[in-house]
């Protein structure tokens, strides 16, 4: 069989790494990069760090409004998928690249596999939620990371081709975990912080970055913390912060985005992590660092249920209260699997061939 894997954003690069490695042992794969994340630190560096094969196509769709960006991707993907003889299209997660890949494949009657299927925030004001729902309902194979995701897909009437395989990002984290201490030693020294003596924060979702009041409240909370704060700033977030003229106290360090392994190293050594990123919420859980999520809901409800993630929105008082909570007891089990999701995905295809 011949697969086309469609990616475009940092979270997808992390997910594709283990799947591509196992998939290519049995099948042929093309990687199509839409160019949704076009900054070097958010794209090429991840391919190099994670030993992902160079994309066969780079579509250079770039940043734009949701409609314009998705339209560019649809046009470019149709040209590629019409040219290549593809048996399956694989899409990951919930970005515009995911949606465009699924729509293009469906129109061309190419079956779709959705990895990280079944997630729901139940907040349709989030573009990602629309992308997830449409992609799941167009897909022939839904590879769910958790039992919760499986139930949510089946509750919408998607019965065929749905299975729990575990979370592929856990596969990737386990693969690089032995490198984290070395990276942390270099990074923390350069940033003048000590292990478990700083907070780490990331903010990139439009619901926060596009709202001056939300960003102002988050900044107010960070400025009131009594511990150094490291804030790797996404380019889009930096533009918003400059527009809002937000002032920072000296203990808040705004730094450039870092690569995947460096980010995990910063997460592992942090006292607490404050984020609106779905991926960082999971990584915090995997690494045993309490997480404060700057949203009202999460797709990763399992992290909340075991006490390792607290949802606070952007209320500065709630943020400070959550930071002060004691570290929870270790979870009794990992709802995200055993780190063999990629193997289980490829074995599932092998089983269908027989």
From TrEMBL:
TM spans (from-to): none
Molecular function GO labels: isomerase activity
Superkingdom of the organism of origin: Bacteria
Domain UDP-N-acetylglucosamine 2-epimerase: start-end pairs: 25-348
UniProt-listed InterPro entries: UDP_GlcNAc_Epimerase_2_dom, WecB-like
Record keywords, A-Z: Isomerase
Pfam families per UniProt: Epimerase_2
Protein family membership: Belongs to the UDP-N-acetylglucosamine 2-epimerase family.
Listed name of the protein: UDP-N-acetyl glucosamine 2-epimerase
Organism: Dictyobacter vulcani
């Amino acid at each position: 069989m011949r697969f086309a894997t469609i990616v475009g954003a940092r979270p997808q690069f992390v997910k594709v790494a283990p799947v591509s490695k196992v998939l290519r042992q049995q099948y042929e794969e093309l990687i199509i990069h839409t160019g949704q994340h076009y900054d070097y630190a958010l794209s090429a560096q991840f391919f190099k760090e994670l030993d992902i094969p160079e994309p066969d196509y780079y579509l250079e769709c770039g940043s734009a409004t949701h409609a314009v960006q998705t339209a560019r991707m649809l046009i470019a993907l149709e040209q590629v998928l019409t040219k290549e003889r593809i048996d399956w299209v694989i899409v990951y997660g919930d970005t515009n690249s995911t949606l465009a890949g699924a729509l293009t494949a469906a129109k061309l009657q190419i079956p779709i596999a959705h990895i990280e299927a079944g997630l729901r925030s139940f907040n349709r004001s989030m573009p990602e939620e629309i992308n997830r729902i449409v992609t799941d309902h167009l897909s022939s194979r839904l590879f769910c990371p958790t039992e919760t995701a499986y139930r949510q897909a089946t509750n919408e009437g998607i019965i065929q081709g749905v299975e729990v395989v575990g979370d592929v990002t856990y596969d990737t984290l386990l693969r690089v975990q032995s490198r984290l201490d070395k990276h942390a030693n270099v990074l923390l020294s350069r940033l003048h912080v000590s292990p478990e003596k700083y907070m780490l924060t990331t903010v990139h979702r439009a619901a926060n970055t596009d709202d001056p009041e939300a960003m102002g409240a988050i900044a107010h909370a960070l400025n009131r913390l009594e511990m150094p704060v490291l804030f790797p700033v996404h380019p889009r977030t930096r533009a918003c912060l400059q527009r809002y003229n937000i002032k920072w106290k000296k203990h808040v360090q705004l730094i450039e985005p870092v690569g995947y392994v460096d980010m995990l190293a910063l997460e592992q050594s942090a006292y607490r992590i404050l984020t609106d990123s779905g991926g960082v919420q999971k990584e915090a859980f995997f690494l045993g660092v309490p997480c404060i999520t700057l949203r009202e809901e999460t797709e990763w409800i399992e992290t909340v249920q075991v006490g390792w993630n607290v949802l606070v929105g952007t209320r500065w008082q709630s943020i400070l209260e959550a930071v002060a909570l004691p570290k929870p007891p270790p979870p009794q089990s990992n709802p995200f699997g055993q780190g063999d999701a990629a193997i289980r995905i490829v074995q599932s295809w092998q089983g269908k061939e027989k």
